[in-house]
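Listing S7. Sequence submitted for prediction.
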Amino acid sequence: MKRLIIILFSFLLVACTTKIDRIWQRTDSTAKENYQEDELDESDKSLYRAGIVTLLFLFAFSATGMYASLMFLHQRTKKQNRNNRFRVKNARLEKLLTAQQAEIEESYEQSKQNAVLAQEIEQLRTQIKYFQTKLTDKITEREQLFYDSDIYSYFSSFKDDKFNHEAPTKEDWKKMISSFRKTFPNYYKFIAEENSLTPDQLKVCILIRLFYPVYTMQRILDADSNRITRIKRQTNKKLFDEDSAASLENNLKRHQNERV
């Protein structure tokens, strides 16, 4: 567009120049013919003045057109730049809003998962209390003596979140196993005599029968949750031919009920 305006302006200047040149040639020719009289014809003077006025008018018109065109181009370019900046700003804003929406959705999903997890934990606690109540109702005198013993109290102290003592020693375990065998003879016979379990597998089975949660087992055995899970899976495989850690407790409970 700018090139077109420049070409048009140049064309007008050339046209004006050509017109004035013709007028000048005509005036010059007339002036030469009347040179001896030292006077120009009045019509030629008028024609010359008219040519000058025409040239000035054409130049002013061209300059005005050029200025108007440049102003139009400037305003259009300014508007385009403003639109481009708006589009860039809008794109950045959309990107930011998309990122924030993704974070909100992720946070919401995490909250839902936490709520579900809390509900599952509460259900497990309710089940534990229920089974503990049923266990208390059916408890025997021999079992009551076991639960009142010092060794059971010592092992149960590991349930306390504020415990600050070390894991049980070999002597502590010897007392626990001896007392446990007398209290739950059938259960102990199954895990210790009818099957060849490792010491850690035997200890896990005893702690399961005493309804100790996993975090208490970790403290008593001085092991992390992965190791407890691994011991449970190996024990379940050896006793019930199931390659799973989760079903060991139910399998032991079912087997105990079948032998009662």
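Caption to Listing S7: primary sequence and predicted structure tokens for the chain studied. The chain has ten helices and no strands. The CA atoms of residues 85 and 91 lie 10 Å apart.
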